[in-house]
């Protein structure tokens, strides 16, 4: 027990070293791939509709039918939800390292397979694409609890928030890279295979070679993940898991000394019988204190409720905004009407718009969190983020007619970018960080998986629901195959309401700035009780054989 405490104290007080930054890159490249794969689909869905659902009699370019569009956009989130629960649980049972490589290889294989989706009909291609994107999401889901837990258990308590935030911030670069790759691919194909606008030549506006463009964009996401596979396999198991869960203090100390250049001198002596008995009793209590126990409900039940609800409502708003940017930009006339462009030109302009918002709003928000989270604290950033997201969404929704009039779309895009900025310099980062800090080591990955799965449930609600809700209330103005919805304006009001719920449930989540993981999880208290009992025992039993 003394050695166990010594290992954890050394981790908490270790100086920031090169390996901390290496771990950020290794774990972060998984999140780079996650964001690339989850959001790149929104760059190519319009192209998929033109290629596979072209109707020569229609005045509008082909588009994915409602059920197909919902499946293509949302199926990866279904896989992610399942993966978060499964790999979160497995990470606590088998160890973080053993599971870490599985998730990455699954992502690489399914990323490549998504781009190779073939079929004899449009339905066949879409079904194959959805199949591989489900399993891609399953692998991505595992990365959430494992990366967060690994980084939290490696970091010292002074800069832990910044390092976990830096891992998550790689999502911003994945999002940006997806847009850049789509711009390059669409521009290259457009330059080589130029085509007229749809209204000038319906069939000729989509060249056959465009079928390769979306495949290249989707497959590119496998490259960064593949490059980091070797380094993931070289990472040792986290010392906290080895010491607290596997109960191997010597290996924990050796692993930590190898990567963090911290030497622990083993001065352990044979413990008294009372100390050994207390340690055994404490270990037994740890085993009994499970996820579904009353003790967990008493200590952490409200924390888990807070992390799950906040992540759920955040992702309804965040993923609705992210996946359907193109529809919102069209509604406010920032993007030209579809029939005035060729298929590749439309892909280029959608990619350019989303890249601009990612560059100006998404990425700065992530890195503001990295800079300020260990200064301001998690609670203030999450509370402020929800509040300002609500304010900016209401600023878009209340004067919505003003934003849709010609000449005002630039102001709309600026306001829209601010909602992304305060999502990322706010709850989108903190909902990822806090569950990796406040739960016990043996349940940390599982609880993070449950919290992030609640988030992906919100993403599913957002990706499926917003697709229908944002349709015009006028049946003559809806997209082909869609029933009338509540309109973009009312949808923004609904998303603002989600942010208000997140604001309120933030009060259930504790501040974790500057505290050790064991303080936050209550594991220090559990260790203190047997130690107190041992000290009491020593005071009541004469110490023969030793003099003052």
Automatic annotation (TrEMBL):
Transmembrane segments annotated in the record for this chain: 21-48, 68-87, 99-118, 162-189, 212-231, 356-373, 379-398, 410-427, 491-509
Pfam families, per database record: Sugar_tr
One GO cellular component term noted in the UniProt record for this chain: membrane
Entry's localization field: Membrane
InterPro entries per record: MFS_dom (IPR020846), MFS_sugar_transport-like (IPR005828), MFS_trans_sf (IPR036259), Phos_permease (IPR004738)
Start and end residues of each Major facilitator superfamily (MFS) profile domain: 23-514
PROSITE patterns with a match to the protein in the record: MFS
Keywords on record: Membrane, Phosphate transport, Symport, Transmembrane, Transmembrane helix, Transport
GO MF, one annotated term: phosphate transmembrane transporter activity
Predominant subcellular localization, coarse grouping: membrane
GO biological process: phosphate ion transport
Protein family (similarity comment): Belongs to the major facilitator superfamily. Phosphate:H(+) symporter (TC 2.A.1.9) family.
NCBIfam families recorded: 2A0109
Protein name per UniProt: H(+)/Pi cotransporter
Native organism: Oryza barthii
């Amino acid at each position: 027990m003394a050695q166990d405490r010594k290992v954890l104290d050394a981790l908490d007080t270790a100086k920031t070293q090169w390996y901390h930054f290496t771990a950020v890159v290794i774990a972060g490249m998984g999140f780079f791939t996650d964001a690339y794969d989850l959001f790149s689909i929104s760059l190519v869905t319009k192209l998929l509709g033109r290629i596979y659902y072209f109707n020569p009699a229609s005045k509008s370019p082909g588009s994915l039918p409602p059920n197909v569009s919902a499946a293509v956009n949302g199926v990866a989130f279904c896989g992610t939800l399942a993966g978060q629960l499964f790999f979160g649980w497995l990470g606590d049972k088998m160890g973080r390292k053993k599971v870490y490589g599985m998730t990455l290889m699954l992502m690489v294989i399914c990323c490549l397979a998504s781009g190779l989706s073939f079929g004899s009909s449009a339905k066949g291609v879409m079904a194959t694409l959805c199949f591989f994107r489900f399993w891609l999401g399953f692998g991505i889901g595992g990365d959430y609890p494992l990366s967060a837990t690994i980084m939290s258990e490696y970091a010292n308590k002074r800069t832990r928030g910044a390092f976990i935030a830096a891992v998550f911030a790689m999502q911003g670069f994945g999002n940006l890279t997806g847009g850049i790759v789509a711009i390059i691919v669409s521009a290259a194909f457009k330059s080589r295979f130029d085509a007229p606008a749809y209204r000038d030549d319906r069939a000729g506006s989509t060249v056959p070679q465009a079928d390769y463009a979306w495949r290249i964009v989707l497959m590119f996401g496998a490259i960064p993940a593949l490059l980091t596979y070797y380094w993931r396999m070289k990472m040792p198991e986290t010392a906290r898991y080895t010491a607290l869960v596997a109960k191997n203090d010597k290996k924990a100390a050796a692993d930590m000394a190898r990567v963090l250049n911290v030497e622990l001198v083993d001065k352990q002596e044979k413990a008294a019988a009372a100390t050994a008995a207390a340690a055994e009793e404490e270990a037994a209590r740890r085993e009994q204190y499970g996820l579904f126990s009353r003790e967990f409900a008493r200590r952490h039940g409200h924390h888990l409720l807070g992390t799950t609800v906040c992540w759920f409502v955040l992702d309804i708003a965040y993923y609705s905004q992210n996946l359907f940017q193109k529809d919102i930009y069209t509604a406010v006339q920032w993007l030209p009407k579809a029939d005035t462009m060729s298929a590749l030109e439309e892909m280029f302009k959608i990619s350019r718009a989303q890249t601009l918002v990612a560059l100006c709003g998404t990425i700065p928000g992530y890195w503001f969190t990295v800079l300020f989270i260990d200064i301001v604290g998690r609670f203030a950033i999450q509370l402020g983020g929800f509040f300002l997201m609500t304010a900016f969404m209401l600023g878009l929704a209340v004067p919505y007619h003003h934003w849709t009039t010609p000449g005002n779309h630039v102001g709309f895009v600026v306001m829209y970018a601010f909602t992304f900025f305060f999502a990322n310099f706010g709850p989108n980062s903190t909902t990822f960080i806090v569950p990796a800090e406040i739960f016990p080591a043996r349940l940390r990955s599982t609880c993070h998986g449950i919290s992030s799965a609640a988030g992906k449930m919100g993403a599913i609600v957002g990706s499926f629901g917003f697709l229908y809700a944002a349709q015009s209330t006028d049946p003559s103005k809806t997209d082909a195959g869609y029933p009338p919805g509540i309109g973009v304006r009312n949808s923004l009001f609904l998303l603002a309401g989600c942010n208000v719920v997140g604001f309120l449930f933030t009060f259930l989540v504790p501040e974790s700035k500057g505290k050790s993981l064991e303080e936050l999880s209550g594991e220090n208290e559990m260790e203190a009780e047997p130690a107190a009992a041992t000290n009491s025992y020593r005071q009541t039993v004469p110490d023969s054989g030793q003099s003052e």
